[in-house]
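Q: Hi! First time asking for a complex rather than a single chain. Here are the components, and I think there are two in total. Is that enough to go on?
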Amino acid sequence: MKRKILIGLVIFFLLFISSGFYIITNIEHVTSSLDGLILLHQVELVRERLLTELKRTQLDIQLRNTQYARSVDAMVTHVRTLNDIVNSCFECHHTAQVAARLDALQISIEAYKNALSRVLTLRANKKRLVSEQDKTFQIGSDIVAEVTNITDLTARKLQTSTTSALEDTRHMKIFVYTLLITAPVVALGFSLLFLRWFTRPVSVLVNATRHLRSGDLSYRIDGLHDEFVEVADSFNKMAVSLKEHYDRMQWAEQVVVLGELAGGLAHEIKNPLAGIKASMEILSTDPTISDENKDVLEKVTEQVKRMEVLIKSFMSFARPPSPQYDVTDVHAVLDSTMAMAQRHPLFRKDRVGRITLIKNYDVNLPTMIADPAQLQQVFLNLVLNAADAMPEGGTITVSTLFDPEQGRLTIQFRDTGKGVDENLREKIFQPFFTTKTKGTGLGLSISKRLVEQQGGAIRLEDHNGSGVSFVITFPVSARKEAPVP
Amino acid sequence: MLKILTSFLLALIFATLPCCSRTEQEHPGSQISAEHAGPRQVIRIGLIPEKNIFKQIERYDPLVQYLSKKIGVEVQFKILLRYGNIIDNFVSEGLDGAFFGSFTYALAHDKLGVRVIVRPESSDGRSTYYGMIIVRKDSGIRTIGDMRGKKFAFVDKATTAGYLLPYAYFRRHDIDYHTYLRDSYFAGTHENVIMDVLDRKADIGAVKNTVFSWLADKNKRIEQELLMLVRSPDVPENALAFRKDLDPKIVNDIKTALLKMDQDVEGAELLSVFGAKRFIVTTDDDYRPVYQYARQAGIKLSIYDYLND
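A: Yes, that's all I need. Here is the structure of the assembled complex.
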């Protein structure tokens, strides 16, 4: 945002500076043109005056020795004025071409003055006097022609310069008008753009808070930039945290309700079942019962036992035993668990699909404070679930990892089964949810409850059709605060 | 918009006109004109056409302005077209003084009683000049006999170098130049005479050596192509003289200012431009060679007709 503000300021500054510079340059150019024009007018006037004085002097020569002759003083004054005018021409800067022409003109004027001096001072016969007078007049006429020529050139240049200056002025006027119209529009456009830049992130944040307030905890902020990326990230993390807390609370409520329900139900069923089971066992000992009826009795007894297991699970879920904490070597618990699992029918060697167990332990994994029995219960459940998910065989990889920076210990159980449908992933830890024909739907929910009871977390990671992973994490440091038996 | 711009331009042009009219500025303390006559005190000084009159004006203009500033009285000069005019103008134009040529001074002193006060001294310490009769080297003229039937250019009848020298020269040889020469005329200035001989408009000329040297510095042809045949005695350089009844205080102020001119920076610079090192005191005694030369030529100053033919 700071960068954008800076960019905005720089753009406005550059706009201002460039406009100002362009205007000043144009004004300077136009002023310079007008100055040049004035100078040319001055030069024009000087040349006109030069021409006038030349013509006066020529007239003085013509009138000399007539009754209309002007005084010598007047003639001398005319020539001196003429001389001053010519000298004034050299006070201005000229191009080399003009300077050369002026030099030539000055030389001619000097010759003219010499000739005039001769005409004024010579005392000779009439023929000589007339000859000198004619010669002087001719020099004067040549100068008049030259000055006229220069004046004409100046006039043409003046015309060109005037046209150019007027054109420059017109361009300047158009530019200024254009600038007056476009500058506010451009400035307004940039202002709106910057305003949008500045206010959009705030609007997005306000909108996001409205979503949260309306209960949409899955809403996330996206598309913000600069410093607002951090704000959006924090907001999104907050939303995630809220969602997790909300889900946890919901889960806790579910567990409590279901636990109480299951506990009550189990308590009510447990005693009748015990009676049925005892009766069945007594009946089965009667020698008069046919083998056919004995089979029925055994099946009833078997189902009753199954119901007892189920009730036991209910009870375990509803009132899980308190963890018995001890310094626990997770690898030892895992080894014990896998040894136990390999004796399970799912791992029988004559099974169609063979299950392979692979260990991938982190040698730096520290011991932790946990209930090893409950951990084993969880691990065994996950290993058996994994084996069950691979009826045609596969590999179960058990990995451990210790992240010292975060103080977190991770245990992963990865299978190579078909994975879990996306729509079932969220329900997989819910009580009584199962995809098995004979499952109680309590294994994963109990595991989750046992892990969370010890401060850990469990989650499912799908590997896009190449199996799933159950990942358990424990904060090692947190566990140290747990009571050690 | 075009009208506004045009008006603006015209306003600017007219506003700047005074700046452009500097060429019309008057020349205070310089050339006398009828309009200048007024009640205030003005000292009027005449200038003889020793050289091109416009060069004379350029040479003397700074000097009279300097004098005006120094003595607190406006000094003006009047360029004269003839040497002899200076005598007439003392009466007709009311001149107070003039830079006289040596022979002109002798005439004016005799006729009007003018009093000489100072004359310039050149950087080489010379305060005199002499007259020269010049010809082209390729003219073949070397003696007075060669001058027969030639065209002679004088300067003015009131000049030592430009007329008195050749007049005395012909008279010494008992020759009437009017009949001896094919043609003669008065070119008016020494510069004109030199250039006329150089350009073959005249065969022989009579000029003063200082102008000859001055022109020779500018035009190498003069030294290369001209030859001096006759030389006059040394006579005082053109000097400043005033009418006898002019306020002695003013005369003294001017004299003091000119004599001290070389002692201040501005004055020294002006003297350098003027072509002199300083002004020196001059008295009528300095003109003895002129009076003597005139007597030798048989000229009686009191009745001498100084007007050109």
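A: Residues 1-39 of chain B have pLDDT under 50 and may be disordered. Let me know if you'd like any chain examined more closely.
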